């Protein structure tokens, strides 16, 4: 089965105190573990985190639209990305 994965990695991390996607987990950034879990995906997008998308050179970067604010902005950006792929 072919599928695309949009990883929601935005947010300020104010309660966490750091960028959660880049936090060290077993010697690797957390985002690397998430990408590994989606190993069968034909395309991967990182939503809302340019630093994480740069680290994962094979991933697309999706930025939520400024017109939409809040936690659902990332979901909408991921869905629009998937729709553009024909998924």
What does this structure look like?
The chain has 87 residues and is α/β, with parallel strands linked by helices. The protein has one domain (4-85): Spore Coat Polysaccharide Biosynthesis Protein SpsA, Chain A, CATH 3.90.550. It is built from three helices and five strands; from the N terminus they run E-E-E-H-E-H-E-H. The strands form two sheets. A three-stranded parallel sheet has the order 1-4-5. Strand 2 (24-25) and strand 3 (28-29) form a beta hairpin.
Defining traits:
87 residues, alpha/beta, Spore Coat Polysaccharide Biosynthesis Protein SpsA, Chain A, three-stranded parallel β-sheet, two-stranded antiparallel sheet, 3 helices, 32% helix, 20% strand, flat
Shape: flat
**Strands across the major sheet, in which order?**
1-4-5
Unreliable stretches: none
Radius of gyration: 13 Å
Which class of secondary structure composition applies to the elements? Answer: alpha/beta
| Record field, number of beta strands | 5
| Fourth-tier CATH superfamily name | Spore Coat Polysaccharide Biosynthesis Protein SpsA, Chain A
Q: Give the termini distance in whole angstroms.
A: 12 Å
Assign the CATH architecture: Alpha-Beta Complex
Tally of separate domains: 1
Total helices: the number is: 3
Instruction: Give the class-level CATH name.
Output: Alpha Beta
How confident is the prediction overall: mean pLDDT?
Answer: 85
- CATH topology (level 3) name: Spore Coat Polysaccharide Biosynthesis Protein SpsA, Chain A
Order of helices and strands: EEEHEHEH
């Amino acid at each position: 089965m072919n599928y695309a994965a949009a990883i929601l990695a935005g947010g300020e991390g104010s309660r966490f105190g750091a960028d959660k996607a880049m936090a060290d987990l077993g010697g690797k950034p957390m985002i690397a573990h998430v990408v590994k879990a989606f190993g069968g995906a034909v395309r991967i997008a990182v939503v809302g985190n340019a630093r994480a998308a740069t680290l994962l050179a094979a991933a697309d970067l999706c930025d939520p639209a400024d017109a939409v604010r809040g936690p659902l902005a990332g979901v909408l950006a991921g869905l629009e990305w998937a729709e553009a792929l024909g998924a």
